[in-house]
Structures are given as C-alpha cells and as structure tokens.
# Entry
Amino acid sequence: MTPRYIRLTSDYQSQEGWLFSRLPLTATNWEVSVISWPTMNVALTSFSSKIEVEFKIYGAGNLHGDGMAIWLTKERATTGVVFGSTDHFNGLGVFIDTYKNQRPGIVFPYVMAMMGNGTVSYDKEHDGKDNEIAGCSARGLRTASVPTKIRLTYFQETSLKVDLHYKSEDEWTECFETGPLTLPSVAYLGFSAETGELHDNHDIISVDTKNKYYTRDYKQQQSVQEADRRRGKAFHQERERGSWTWFFLKLVMLGIVVVGGYVGWTMYRASQRSSRF
# Structure
C-alpha cells in the first residue's frame, strides 16, 4: 500500500489479494445525498446507489492475467479461487477478466456480472459463461492512456448499470444494463485480484460511493416534469402545424391577388381598345 494506490497483486506469479470494507454498506454508513423537498415527512420508497472505482491493471510482457473483481456480498475478506476471493458467494460480483480460457468469440479483457446465491459455483474454466447476467468486451483497457475507471449504478430491484472509462478523457462507455435484480440488504464492498502462471499489477487508486433516496414526492415531481415535457412537445408540434397552415393561407391569398390583378389588367386593356374604335 502507498499513498497513491493499494496493490492487490504484484506482477508476479500465483498471487492473491483483497480489500474489503470493515462495515457493511447500509443506509446509515453510505455517503448519502438526500433529495430535499419542502416537506420531507413522507416515506422513503426507493434508492439508487453509485460506486465509482479508479483502478489500473498493467505489467511487463505481452501475456498477462488473471484479472480482478468488485464485490457486493454478504461475505467479506475470504481468499478463494474467484479472482482471489471465495466461490459460492452470496451477492454480486463484477469481474474484469484479462485472460481468456475457453470462451471462443469473446474479445478480452471482458467485464461481466454474476449473482451468487451461496451455492452456485463460478464457471472458471469457461470464464463465467454459464453465470453471466450481462457483460461486454473492453479491448484496450490495460493499455489505456487515460485513467481507467468503472462505475456501477444500482436502482433498487430495477437494474444494474455498468459504465467504463478508458477510451478518452471524460468519455464513459456503457458496458451493460441488466434487468431487475436484488442485492443483499446488507453487503460488504470489496475488491480482489489474482495471478496464475501469467501475472499483472492490480491497483486500486480511488473509490467513491454515493446513495440517493427517492420519495413519493420526488416520483410525483418526475411525473409532473414528464407530463410538462410531453405537453411542451405537443404545443411545439401544434405551433409547427399552425405555422404551415398560415403559410399555405398566405400563398392562397397571394394567388387570389395575382389572379385578380391579371383579370383587372385584361379588362382595362379591352376597354382601352374599345374606346379607340
């Protein structure tokens, strides 16, 4: 450990390392941002959580492995075979896998999520193919010229979204978004990594967690804003239709004026000819 990073593994063979929170992530000890409305005497109905991690995976040579994991599980600080942490976990694991075993058609590094129920085993031989909820390839993540980051956003019992930062400065790329899933109500946040015959440095540079609670008033406010947006869109479309109607009406009026002028001029010429004879 240094003032700049915590190293989970060094660039040597057969290493394991982990870093876990001492206390579980609950509503009382997360960094919480409460959305304030004039009246707050209403029940809290749902929340979203955000975890942003800056990390670095690098090493000498062209071959490297094995990868690292981010955990939100009931268990904590137990060494094992799943990227340096325990198998048969209960909760969420997000894996940054840098070494391809037997998974044809997939470009590595590969980022994927798995939900464990305490009995399911991680399919290490096939890089978690049978366990995967969602995932994405992240070619260039190890050799990125900008800080490498991963951001997990969880909407309670609705979805988990994972974004990556590695292509260019301040550019986040969506990796995946899941359907509904339920995380343990009390879970430890952790990180782990492992090396085998191939190896890398796996460093944690910074971790930022946030939690936002939404009230019924907030949801009503969102509904009102959405309704206003739709009304505004409809009004804009109505104005566009009205503008086109007025435009065509002016064309018709102009046509009437032109035709009337032509008829009047023709009659005038005819009367002039008559007066000569």
About this structure: The longest strand covers residues 44-58. The longest helix spans residues 216-276. The two ends are 116 Å apart (CA to CA). Confidence is low (pLDDT under 50) at residues 28-45.
